[in-house]
Design a protein that fits this description.
Blueprint (H helix, E strand, L loop, with lengths): L9 H14 L9 H6 L6 H8 L5 H10 L8 H8 L10 H16 L3 H7 L7 H8 L2 H6 L4 H10 L2 E8 L8 E6 L2 E3 L4 E3 L3 E6 L9 E4 L4 E4 L2 H18 L3
Antiparallel strand pairs: 1-2, 1-6, 2-5, 3-4, 6-7
Amino acid sequence: MIATITVPSGPVRFARFAFPPNRLGYCGPGDGGELAHYTQGHEDPGLRELAVGFEGAYPYLQLIAGTNRRDDPLAADVVEAYWLGNELLDHVPLHDFGNSIDERFRRRAGAAWRHVDRAIPDGVANHAFHVLHVMPWAGLLRDGLVDEPLRIIDRCHISWATVIGPVGDPAEHGRVLVDRTPLVWSGSRLELGDPVVEAVDSPFPVWPGDVVAVHWDWICERLDQRRLGWLERVTNRQLAELHAG
């Protein structure tokens, strides 16, 4: 059974999920150097300033907060709703969600907008929607380009894994082995595959048997049963919508 888990503040949670792609140069300001400090649990006004610079993620947080009458886009449950999923997503009106996606992405999507537009009615203001429907990689899979698009989608979406233990080399401080559920391409469908053993980084201590959220080979958070359930739910929902119609 997965135990009850204490989570950090909303801004620190945001830093832990946003840091992995930021350090690779995929999103947000800088190169991850500033965010790295905050993943250790530190918090100050500079973290909030950095978060606003994430032009992909932060508007989703504003949408979730605003439609749930929350004053703070970096409140812990708002951050959780975007990265993992929770009941706040159920209170984001489709009209507001659709308008936000339309205003932000219609022009830049170009001809691919029809795929994004089709997904909106069953979409949610969650990272899984952004990765699977807004970003161009799923479209490239449909066009027959597999290896690199699949690698990016698999690493970019938030996946779940079970900690096996530390990496054997003592020099690999903070590296652990996990049994992770990846995304795979069947030739016509993107779907969940069989668990694979991988080495990933962790900014905080974890133990064998812990269930964790993984983003770009980085453990963002330990998951209890509720959070795992939501992550699985939103991921499966957006995967189903990807192949609907």
